[in-house]
Amino acid sequence: MYVLEKIFNLLFFFGILLLFGRILTLILRLLDIPFTTFFKDYSKISLIILIFGIIGTEFVKSRKRNNA
């Protein structure tokens, strides 16, 4: 379970970073400041990564609570 916990935490962290990048891209585009389109191009993938991270983290937490 320890390896799965690390993987899900990594997915969650990476998904949060991509989410902040998408928000930053949106803010800069609204201000007409040129910025990379990387976060816009991979927006669906970043949401999928974030959702897997959240679901996996909650799954591991519930397993720990039931075993303790």
Brief write-up:
This protein is an all-alpha fold and 68 residues long. The protein has 3 helices and no strands.
What does this structure look like?
It is a single chain. With 68 residues, the protein is mainly α. It has one domain. The chain has 3 helices and no strands. Helix 1 runs antiparallel to helix 3. The model has no long low-confidence stretch (mean pLDDT 85).
**SSE pattern, N- to C-terminal:** HHH
> How many E-type strands?
0
Helix content: over 70%
Major sheet description: none
Q: Tell me the strand percentage band.
A: under 5%
Cα gyration radius (Å): 15 Å
CA distance, first residue to last residue: 14 Å
Low-confidence runs: none
Structure keywords:
85% helix; mainly alpha
Please write out the topology.
Elements: H1 2-30, H2 38-41, H3 43-67
Helix pairs in contact: 1-3
Keywords: Membrane, Transmembrane, Transmembrane helix
Transmembrane segments: 7-30, 42-60
